[in-house]
Amino acid sequence: MRFRLTPRETSFYDMFAASADNIVTGSKLLMELLGADSSARAEIAERMRAAEHAGDDATHAIFHQLNSSFITPFDREDIYALAGSLDDIMDFMEEAVDLVVLYQVEELPKGVEQQIEVLARAAELTAEAMPNLRTMDNLTEYWIEVNRLENQADQIHRKLLAHLFNGKYDAIEVLKLKQIVDVLEEAADAFEHVANTVETIAVKES
């Protein structure tokens, strides 16, 4: 790590960790949605909406701290990128839950549980990685594994699309379900964006 003569604002590390922990909360709500009947989904959506608002607050706090700090722990554009990508993850997860409720989906297609399991694992890895930004230690395995998970998510997504277009569903149902699985795929992509940003930061700081 590069030696610095100037002090750095360290509260960013705690805020990134809090944001990532909130994403774990969102992933658990997604898992809960899988086992819930339609009558329970509205309440889960309310809790997910609250988690998404908490994520927004965390992102705004990072941006406020960034705008008021003269010294930052790493490049400002990387802080913006990392905070924004973490926020995107929560936005996509909340959107997926909201769509399930709004579209009154009775049964999610087989394979969605695999998508959500991948997101839950990526959330755990991200929450474990954020505190390591302080030292830049033990991060290589994190971004390699998240990239592997994103590739796995791509494969699951393609299989889900093939399943949706196999003629079992009517056209309107296909449109509804496709939008949900597409948003979950976007969440997987956002996890990869976070990992790629962390890799960029680590390379610059090495």
UniProtKB/TrEMBL annotation:
Q: Identify one Pfam family in the record.
A: PhoU_div
Q: Which SUPFAM superfamilies match?
A: PhoU-like
Q: Which Gene3D superfamilies match?
A: Phosphate transport system protein phou homolog 2, domain 2
Coiled-coil region? none
- Span-the-membrane segments of this chain are none
Read off the PANTHER family from this record.
Answer: UPF0111 PROTEIN YKAA
Q: Which family does it belong to?
A: Belongs to the UPF0111 family.
Name used for this protein in its record: DUF47 family protein
Q: What species was this sequence derived from? A: Streptomyces graminearus
